[in-house]
Design a protein that fits this description.
2 domains, TIM Barrel, alpha/beta, eight-stranded parallel beta barrel, 42% helix, binds 3-methyl-2-oxobutanoic acid, single chain, 8 strands
Length: 272
C-alpha cells in the first residue's frame, strides 16, 4: 500500500525540474519543526528547506557557522513528520561537505537515512562540482547555492549584494553551468542583481530559486520566520513580511502576563 509520502501529488525532484519546463513557478520556504512544516505543506509550498538558518533563527547564533550535523538531522526529522506533499531538502552545515568526499557522502547520507530528507543543499560553485557529481551518482539529489553563501560570511566580511561587478557576475554564471553539469536539480541564487539572476535562469535548464534575486527566477524562497515578521533583528530589502507575527505574539504574551497578574486568567469557564 502506498504511504502518504508516495501518494499522488507528492512533489519529487523530477517534478521540481519539470515545473521549470512547464513555466510553473516554484514556491519554497524554510522550516525547522513539525508544526511549521505541517502548515507550509498544507498551504501548498512545493519545497521545504531545513536551512542552516536554523542556527540564527532558532538557536540565536550570529551566523550559520556553528550549526552541526546532529542539529540539522534533529530538525529534519521533525520537519519530515509534518510533510505529505512538499519536497524536503536539508541544508548541509559548514564543514560537513568540504573535508573529504567520503565524509560528505556519510553526512549527506545521514540527511536522507536518519533525517528523512529527499535531497541536500550545499553552498559553493566550481570547487564543489566533484562532490556533487559523487552524491548524485549515489542517488542523493543536490541543490546548489550561489551568490551570497552565508557560510562564507568570514570571507565576504558581511551580507552585501554579491556579483555586482562584471568578473564576479561572469564567474557566477560559469559556476551555475558547472553545477548543472555536475548534476544539481536546482540552484538557489541569493542576493544577486535581478538582471544576473534572469541571465542565469535563461542559461541553465535546472530551476533557479531566488532569494533577493529578483522576479525572474524559476522559484522563490524566503526564511519563513522573516516573512512572518517573527525574526525582527534585521529585515533585508528582499524580505516581504506577509504578517507581523512578532508584534502579535508580543501583545498576546503581554496580555497573558497582565491577566495572570490581575487574576483575570483563568476564568471559571476555563476551570474544572
Ligand atoms: O539556510 C537557509 O535558510 C537558506 C535559504 C535562505 C536559502 O540557505
Amino acid at each position: 500500500m502506498a504511504s502518504e509520502k508516495t501518494a499522488a501529488g507528492k512533489v519529487t525532484v523530477p517534478e521540481i525540474m519539470a515545473m521549470k519546463k512547464r513555466g510553473e513557478k516554484i514556491a519554497c520556504l524554510t522550516a525547522y519543526d513539525y508544526l511549521m512544516a505541517t502548515l507550509l505543506d498544507r498551504a501548498g509550498v512545493d519545497l521545504i528547506l531545513v536551512g542552516d538558518s536554523v542556527g540564527m533563527v532558532v538557536a540565536g547564533y550570529k551566523t550559520t557557522i556553528p550549526v552541526t550535523m546532529d542539529a540539522i538531522i534533529y530538525h529534519t526529522q521533525a520537519v519530515a513528520r509534518g510533510i505529505r506533499r512538499a519536497l524536503l531538502v536539508t541544508d548541509m552545515p559548514f564543514l560537513s561537505f568540504q573535508v573529504s568526499i567520503e565524509k560528505t557522502v556519510e553526512n549527506a547520507g545521514r540527511c536522507l537515512k536518519e533525517g528523512g530528507a529527499e535531497a541536500v543543499k550545499l553552498e559553493g560553485g566550481a570547487p564543489m562540482a566533484e562532490t556533487i557529481r559523487r552524491l548524485v551518482d549515489l542517488g542523493i539529489p543536490v541543490m546548489g547555492h550561489l551568490g551570497l553563501t552565508p557560510q562564507s560570511i568570514n570571507k565576504f566580511g558581511g551580507y552585501r549584494l554579491r556579483a555586482k561587478d562584471k568578473d564576479e557576475a561572469k564567474q557566477l554564471l560559469t559556476d551555475a553551468k558547472i553545477l548543472q553539469e555536475a548534476g544539481v536539480f536546482s540552484i538557489v541564487l541569493e542576493k544577486v542583481p535581478a538582471a544576473l539572476a534572469k541571465k542565469v535562469t535563461e542559461n541553465v535548464q535546472v530551476p533557479t530559486i531566488g532569494i533577493g534575486a529578483g522576479p525572474d527566477c524559476d522559484g522563490q524562497i524566503l526564511v519563513t520566520h522573516d516573512m512572518l515578521g517573527l525574526f525582527e533583528e534585521f529585515k533585508p530589502k528582499f524580505v516581504r513580511r506577509y504578517v507581523e507575527l512578532g508584534k502579535a505574539m508580543r501583545s498576546a504574551f503581554e496580555q497573558y502576563v497582565a491577566d495572570v497578574k490581575e487574576s483575570k486568567f483563568p476564568s471559571l469557564q476555563e476551570s474544572y
